[in-house]
Amino acid sequence: ASAQSLGFEEGDGGRPGKTAMAPEDGVESDIEYEAHLTSKLPAPVVLEPSVAPRGTRIICTLGPSSRSVDECAGLLEAGMSVARFNFSHGSYEYHSETLANLRAACERTGKVCAVLQDTKGPEIRTAMLRGGEKIQLEAGQSVIVEAVGAAYTSFEGYKTPEETRIGLSYEKLCQSVRMGSTILIADGTISLRVEEIVSATELRATCLVNKKLGERKNCNLPGIKVDIPVLTEKDINDLVEFGCKRKVDFVAASFVQSGDDVRFIRRVLDENGGSDVQIISKIENEEGVQNIDEILKYSDGIMVARGDLGMEIPMEKMFQVQKMII
């Protein structure tokens, strides 16, 4: 398979949608083109006729069981055209080794593969629990929810005969929600209804289900604009130290809520040598859906992240939202 048979242009890092225009004969070009191909292909391979151009790209996440050279080669032979690096997990050393393995696999197979860096993004999680023991929540019981911010990794929730208290990492929780708002925890398996805003850092809610609560569980606030920067300090470091330096092709930006979010990501990339990196905005909450037109103006692509988005909107509306976006 050639670079063109995969739908990628030569000299553009294996990224679709970009065309490098050659200068006219005898005319010096003022534009310097720099190739960021994942592998170097000989001209005969690049120029061979396309038999069946692929219209759909296959994105594969490279994890512990699929990051070796042999596994990457197998994925490439099977049709992988974009390798996803999930920065919610793993160190720079881990991802750098995986990238080296991918490039070695590209050399071995003669395949071209783009690299997509998926940021961890802003997230809300529950805090730790006293003794590491799960808390049994009962439908109808009262729960005190405390906005503990960055201290969620040390704060310990508990359940006693007098009260049940848990912590959330979202510092502006009590300023964002209102009476009647829903707090979804652990992929929506636990649902809390806000009954009273007690203080700037504390609220009282009613549990709507019978379920055990564990530590560091993800949290969604349907219909609420979450006031958290689209890039955390970790995300910025990841983009600068890995994305820009390693010349990835795409960045999948988590929880994009506005056009300004995309412009901020673009600025971080441009200021650190990543002007060629394309931005794929992930739509994961209601705010992102509401601002989709503005987000489209500044994005190079859109990803409908149905897992988290399904926590924000009714399931029967998902297909309509997806059709509206794409």
Automatic annotation (TrEMBL):
Swiss-Prot/TrEMBL cofactor(s): K(+)
Biochemical pathway: Carbohydrate degradation; glycolysis; pyruvate from D-glyceraldehyde 3-phosphate: step 5/5
Region annotated Disordered, chain positions: 1-24
Pfam families, sorted: PK
Domain called Pyruvate kinase barrel: residue spans: 54-326
Catalytic activity: pyruvate + ATP = phosphoenolpyruvate + ADP + H(+)
PROSITE patterns in alphabetical order: PYRUVATE_KINASE (PS00110)
EC code(s) of this entry: 2.7.1.40
Molecular function terms, GO-annotated: ATP binding; kinase activity; magnesium ion binding; potassium ion binding; pyruvate kinase activity
Top enzyme class: transferase
Family: Belongs to the pyruvate kinase family.
Name of this protein: Pyruvate kinase
Species this chain originates from: Prasinoderma singulare
